[in-house]
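Structure, all two chains, one model.
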Amino acid sequence: MKRVHNFAAGPAALPLEVLLKAQAELPDFNGIGMSVMEISHRSKDFKEVAEGAESLLRDLMGIPDNYRVLFLQGGASLQFDMIPMNLMSRTKRAYYINSGNFAKKAAKEARLFGEVIEPASSEDCNYSHLPLISDDMFSEDADYLHFTYNNTIYGTEFRGIPVKTDLPVVSDMTSCILSEPVDVSGYGLIYAGAQKNIAPAGLTVVIVRDDLIGLNPSLPSMLDYAVHAKNDSMYNTPTTFAIYMAKLVFEWLKEQGGVEGIHRINLEKADMLYSYIDSSSLFHGIVDNKADRSIMSVTFTTGDKDLDERFSKEAEENGLTNLKGHRIAGGMRASIYNAVTLEDCKALVDFMKEFERKN
Amino acid sequence: MKRVHNFAAGPAALPLEVLLKAQAELPDFNGIGMSVMEISHRSKDFKEVAEGAESLLRDLMGIPDNYRVLFLQGGASLQFDMIPMNLMSRTKRAYYINSGNFAKKAAKEARLFGEVIEPASSEDCNYSHLPLISDDMFSEDADYLHFTYNNTIYGTEFRGIPVKTDLPVVSDMTSCILSEPVDVSGYGLIYAGAQKNIAPAGLTVVIVRDDLIGLNPSLPSMLDYAVHAKNDSMYNTPTTFAIYMAKLVFEWLKEQGGVEGIHRINLEKADMLYSYIDSSSLFHGIVDNKADRSIMSVTFTTGDKDLDERFSKEAEENGLTNLKGHRIAGGMRASIYNAVTLEDCKALVDFMKEFERKN
């Protein structure tokens, strides 16, 4: 079995221990003589999987009892629609902070359902830092405030909720969920596509406060949080294999010392990379405000397009894959999600040093 | 490795050959040093998977060039919404034949978006046969006609489009797709959740004629066929692992002689079960019109609730699993999808004979 250092932005690396466990029990789960993919979502065996996954996630994130955990489909992109459909109920108005490509996409969809106020944006500088935010930007009444916690394409990341507000706060945590401690009780709704830090693509996790469920009647069933909450995410067949994989990842996370434990490792990984980048005379970071740097998405460049191209290509040939930056941002991006190890990051720094020596 | 005879209604049995292939390459797909779950949906390696899956499906079903194949998420249940959202455009009216629980659910959702005409129903006899249908029931102009091809809970199945009509015909083929030849060119849209005859749960296949795409502007992006068609089903991250599994299943189907080959086996399996049921003095079929019997979902009962209960329980203990009927229909149900083998059906008949001898 060959394994490379995988810095993919998503779908992304999964812990090897998890892949090997899934592999071992693929045709015969728990000794029942069937794959976990071949059993009813309503079976006793699968219910244990789904309930186990939810219970582990609640424990890992410290999710209070007045929040529901929903295992849905359609990715963050479907949440861009479901959030305004479900939450724009009273004022039909919401704040969307424009900190990146996905933040902008979320706002664009929300405009189909109500008024979107953009209090702050860093689009004019190609999102190279987080927008400047002050509390007085949120003086109008609204149904909620939306922000994208980690901006995976540009490599910026908020440090918690960027404003003091009584509005329900909604956050897209697709590319940082479970990478650092988060006080869930400060949020109205947290959502994340699974394919970066949780499981294979196809699963979406929504953590939503009770009082934000069921505000809009007569929604299409599949787009109504109330329907999914009432049916424990089994209104229809959920994506069972991805939920099973999520459970394995959550178990693995517990073994890493939970979110606190993995956060320490994540800080060490990010620090190793940024320290080298800051000391390098060939590479420099793309984010122009160091305080805004993401610990999950490390973007950098040589400043020379051809050299960047050559770096990604040679890295690939040396078993360091998926380092090419997003076409919008250019340069390089190392996505160092939870499953990317210290050793992977060390190998990358070693390769960067060698590349710098030769160029 | 233990394996049982699995008659689950969905998520359902997958071909053992497919499971073993997936198992072998789980941590290292194609020698690239990463799992197929760990690579970008836009990578060269995954594009080959997705394009391969589509090309195989086109070949297996004989899908004409003027149809698009979409790999979506959300199951048939999300299609219950997307179909009227996308197709109710001109008359804002559609026919829904009421032949079972899912047919009824589809109609209920469609009522959120326009007028639903129910030309025929067999609900009053608990769906124990297909509704009687004649062409004159469809005299009003409408945007489309919807029917559920195989009614998995009750065990009835249409034999093609049940009416001569110029309206676009939309069919839910979740529990029978790829089990028998279908003339796709007679349909406007065919859809199927993958978890019965295609792949693990989470993938939805939509086959839609070009002229039915893009009829309604300003739909939410994720609910708009035009957006998915334009982006080759990669507007957002698709459920990559399920698409990979679908490709393996399609390859396996080709080895079985394609849809024609598997259809011959399916007829043999169904015939074996129905022949025994009709000859038995203990068991009888639940469908009261033999011509309406499904070749995928074989429902039967002893007529005695306690004895039915005991049958399912003892079968389970003897390695014949998931034979308990749906709570709505009662009795027993053997779902004999493509991956259920002749040997599985033979084992079931043998067990039924033994159970009859003893009771």
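The longest helix of chain B spans residues 258-279.
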